[in-house]
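Hey, I'm writing a tutorial for new members on how sequence and structure tokens pair up, and I'd like a real worked example in the thread rather than a made-up one. If someone can provide the structure for the chain below, I'll link this post from the tutorial.
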Amino acid sequence: MHYRIAIGALLVECNHFGGIATDMASFQRTQYLQEDELLALTDGTIGGFLKTLGQSERQCAIVPTVAATACPGGLVLDSTYQSIKTELLTTLATAQQDEGLDGILLALHGSAATESECDLEGDLLQAVRTTVGPDVPVVATLDLHAHVTQPMLDFADALIAWETYPHCDAAETGTRAAHALIDILQGTLQPTMAMGMAPLLVGAINGGTSGDGPFAQTMKYAKSMETRPEVYSTSAFLVHPYLDAPEMGGGGLVITNNAPDSARQLAQDIAEFYWEQRFSLEPTLISVPAAINTGQSKDGTVVLVDTADCCGGGAAGDSIEVLPHLIALGENISSVMPVVDSAAVEKCHAAGIGALIDLEIGHQHDRKWGVPLQVSGEVLYLSDGQFIYSGGIWDGCEGNMGPAAVLKVAGVHVCLSSFPTYEWCGEQYAALELDVTRMKYIVAKNPMNYRMAFGHCSEHFIVLDTKGPTPATCKYLPYSHSPRPAFPWDDEIVEPIRVLVQNDR
């Protein structure tokens, strides 16, 4: 006898405050695999699923559905979501009707939203449950930036989250999720879940999971509970703060083996611990002029962290807020910064390498956060924008910036791309044949990976107080649906912790 297991993925992180709408092309540029194409995956969360199921003592027949992954961005178009959802559900329904399904494994993010649905994952899990019925166990993986909702708890049997940031444990998380499903099928796990939530909306600057930072301590505290005999799994969540959804917050999720009261109490304990870290989670910021002035007194390369325009958080990547300040330094001070601007790229490609051109750059894709800047520069390099990620959750995967160019404006090497891409370890700069080690300033549009990307050439990292849809502090974002009171707006709250419990189906 074997288990018949369906697998699939819908992985995207969305931003309510800016970015470029996530359409079908956004998924196709990153990863859009159908049916048997999924079976070739050896890495990522699905790779972890497949490896573990393949090693199970009980033979597992795999039913592949769809795996759709996109770079974080603006809201998913309703039509795009419906297309992916329909494909997944149709495959599940057919499989259930033909030979039946014993279980389902899904790789999800937990902070996706559409034009009309702020809880994509909750909606999807409910639809999956409706399709396969109440008795087929559904286990889903989540990013530790997930916004865990009541529908997610109610319509999944178990939720297993990534445990590292910067992210590097996608495959391992897939393995843990597959083991959970097998344990459920074998009757050794009767999962009962609870999610403790603290009203914190903070950026990711202090959200690393290594070392002794505030979120690292929270993660360690959560994982320490797994030594208890009734606890199967724990997860800590920072939450993606650039959603504007009801009842948002971070904290901890606990899965016990048929011990709901313990799950509730321990989830509350994690959330309370997380709440106590709130002041340490908020970063210290410095203005752009002050940061550049500080950098002038430092020996070697200085990294300017413009997290407000992070493509990995859903921003368009088209901000040029830092650019005029770098241009003002003149020809003799070299710097480099990325800007997503497909129109500028097109003009550079039309002009050719060596051409001197005048053009507008910046804020062409997301006009909410600034206006374009008129510049004059030399086209230094042209590229098709293809590159390979090295390390992390996309290790070995192809990246696609679309047509790209390097435009030198005064001493600034402006790296222009057509599409937003996730910034990991400087692969985009390398693809444009830029040696960042000779730059005085590197602009990194990422809240966490910058130390890993540029630690080999810099000891100086300055987090900027810039505006955009992914700022280092959430204080000034125009939320309309997220809860109040909440930190960082409110420091002291009476009974701040809420606990969501999994309802019986």
